[in-house]
Amino acid sequence: xxxxxxxxxxxxxxxxxxxxxxxxxxxxxxxxxxxxxxxxxxxxxxxxxxxxxxxxxxxxxxxxxxxxxxxxxxxxxxxxxxxxxxxxxxxxxxxxxxxxxxxxxxxxxxxxxxxxxxxxxxxxxxxxxxxxxxxxxxxxxxxxxxxxxxxxxxxxxxxxxxxxxxxxxxxxxx
Length: 174
Fold this sequence. Notes:
Number of helices: 4
Helix content: 10-25%
Largest sheet: 2 strands, antiparallel
Order of helices and strands: EEHHHH
Mean pLDDT: 87
Distance between the termini: 37 Å
Shape: globular
Structural class: alpha+beta
Radius of gyration: 18 Å
Number of strands: 2
């Protein structure tokens, strides 16, 4: 967070305590499998700008679409920060192999789906050879069961977003 090339008083690293009763449930009891965590980390950056890049009279996210330079320094900073934080686990909060981490720095347990991160499904930022696909980071070993649930309750895939549970056989899961 002490990058001399980046200045933003709205950039933050939030540490939430976890553990206790959250960890009483088995990992397969809900869609959220992270049940041995003691901390949850959140990386955030917010910014404002005073430029109507798309000339519609409103300062909003559409301006960043018209001028990617508005968001670029902030997105670049948070990507570098996250990558450095998880450097020992190939730049992502990896799901541990059976038996746990090889080093304390690798002691991560995937991601919380409530904080979606589009970079996790970008092969440039989370390469396939890291063997940490987005659905494993979020759902761990629960993904196959969640796909079957999705097929039963939402067979037409009405409820979806970029990283939602996919229907079985749709290519988002081997």
